[in-house]
Amino acid sequence: MVPVVSASAYAAARQRAAFAERVDRARIVVSGADRASYLQGLLTNDIAALTAGTGCYSAYLTAQGRMIADMNAYELGDAILLTLEAAVKDTVMARLDQFIFGEDVQLGDVTDAFAQIAVVGPEAATVVARALGGVDAGALAPLPEYGNLRVASAFGAAIVARIADAGEPGFDVYVERAHAGALKSALAAAGAPEMDEATSEALRIEAGVPKFHRDMDEETIPLEAGIESRAISFTKGCYVGQEVVIRVLHRGHGRVARRLVGIALTGAQPPASGAAIRSGDREIGEVTSSTMSPALQRPIALGYVHRDFAAAGTAVDVDGVPGEVVTLPFVSPGRR
Known about the structure:
Layout lengths: L6 H9 L2 E4 L3 E7 L3 H6 L14 E7 L5 E9 L3 E7 L3 H10 L7 E4 L4 E7 L3 H9 L4 H4 L7 E6 L2 E8 L6 E7 L3 H10 L7 H10 L15 H4 L2 H4 L10 H10 L6 E8 L10 E4 L2 E12 L4 E9 L8 E4 L2 E6 L10
Antiparallel strand pairs: 1-7, 2-5, 2-6, 3-4, 4-5, 7-10, 8-9, 9-10, 11-14, 11-16, 12-13, 12-15, 13-14, 15-16
């Protein structure tokens, strides 16, 4: 059965604010004087350039250029907070630990210690400030993407970080796990309803944001998923997997075997994950995520197709339902 998007929660996220606890995310703290230089040699983005209160999106690759994980990295001033897909947390922790030799670096798994709650929508800054108490919305609103603040709140020390990966601009709020229920009640009292998974997924897919273990996995090269402009620094020094990325970009002119694309479909039901994408009699790829778009009032999907069929306007069908490849995002974040 296809999950039903909550019309009221979706409307709140687009027009006011709504929240969702990010139970699918894990949290790792990297501390020590050498934390930035240590991560600089492992992750794809320019971690060494981060200053207190800033952050970035990055990937962690194998030597073969395939993804181990994607993550947000936040420099807090005395530590770097990494947030990533919960299912790969143990793998990432083990791999990071293997590369600590003489550096002053400590790793901490704080997944169970802190809750991570996304608050999205045009009024997110006001709602977060009101719910936390004693926090100035004027200090939150101008935060750039991945900007972060430590604040004193009614629930003790909290971290507020600007996000864009939830499909609608907003913030992730981090509080001690014991305060999660009270914070959610405060957000609801401030006018933000809670979103269910189907609604959160609709926002994400409409924004064309790929999710690890859904639209990317351990066989994915970042260029296939189209995340290179956000996740990869082309001016920093060496990192694990760099040779493969550079080879594809320079020798291969950026050509990869497949590309993640958006597909807009006719009909009344979104296709299942794994459904075959065809062009005529040829199978050219498969669906990775799908939803019934509240904004477009039609089924939409993310999926990989052979590079020869990745251009916008290409006619395809999924399980016999006609569709076409479209330019992502389906719906621009911030659209009212």
